[in-house]
């Protein structure tokens, strides 16, 4: 049975979905926000160990390429590209069209729970379905920001 990992690091809530065949076998989501680079591997290890799998058991990885957080997308995509190279797995990148605005700039976030009003994240199943036909070995996934990056200066403590 094929093991596919779906990854979404486009928002402050990061998500992993483990698909076995075409079925979502397990998933994990956590508030990563500014800690994504510190939590990514421990959360992935947690998901894999819960399912008695190792990195070598992964056959493919589908990652959200955007739009979304500049830093979150870059971290997730760099890790996926490194895994693809090191493990020789197939990869695909998915653009979340649901998060795109009809304007060139994504509207300011208005909070309603965890996600902005009017901008919906794709389910892990939709991410998997959108990416599974594009899986290939050796391709480099590039981020899609959907607008010019909004890079801020480091906050003073």
Explain briefly what this protein structure is.
The termini are far apart. With 157 residues, this protein is α/β, with parallel strands linked by helices. The protein has one domain (3-137): 2-Layer Sandwich (Nucleotidyltransferase, domain 5), CATH 3.30.420.
Task: Give your account of this protein's structure.
- The longest helix is centred in the middle third of the chain and has 18 residues.
- About 11% of the residues have low confidence.
- A hairpin with a 2-residue loop joins strand 2 and strand 3.
- The protein has one domain: 2-Layer Sandwich (Nucleotidyltransferase, domain 5).
- The protein is of the alpha/beta class and 157 residues long.
- 27% of the residues lie in helices and 27% in strands.
- It is globular and about 50 Å long.
What keyword list fits this structure?
single chain, 157 residues, alpha/beta, Nucleotidyltransferase, domain 5, six-stranded mixed beta sheet, two-stranded antiparallel sheet, globular
Radius of gyration equals: 15 Å
How many distinct folded domains?
Answer: 1
CATH topology: Nucleotidyltransferase, domain 5
Record field, number of beta strands: 8
- The class by helix and strand makeup works out as alpha/beta
Unreliable parts: 102-118
**How would you state the average pLDDT, rounded?**
86
Order of helices and strands: EEEHEHEEEHE
Count of DSSP helices? 3
CATH C-level name: Alpha Beta
CATH architecture descriptor = 2-Layer Sandwich
């Amino acid at each position: 049975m094929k093991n596919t990992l779906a990854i979404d690091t486009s928002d402050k809530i990061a998500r992993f979905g483990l698909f076995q065949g075409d079925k979502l076998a397990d998933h994990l989501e956590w508030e990563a926000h500014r800690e994504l680079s510190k939590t990514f591997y421990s959360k992935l290890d947690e998901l894999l160990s819960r399912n008695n799998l190792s990195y070598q058991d992964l056959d493919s990885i589908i990652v959200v390429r955007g739009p979304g957080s500049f830093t979150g997308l870059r971290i997730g995509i760099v890790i996926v590209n490194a895994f693809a190279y090191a493990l020789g797995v197939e990869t695909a990148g998915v653009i979340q069209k649901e998060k795109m605005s009809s304007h060139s700039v994504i509207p300011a976030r208005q909070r309603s729970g965890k996600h902005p009003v009017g901008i919906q994240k794709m389910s892990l199943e939709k991410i998997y379905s959108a990416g599974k036909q594009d899986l290939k070995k050796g391709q480099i996934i590039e981020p899609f920001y959907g607008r010019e990056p909004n890079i801020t200066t480091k906050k003073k403590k």
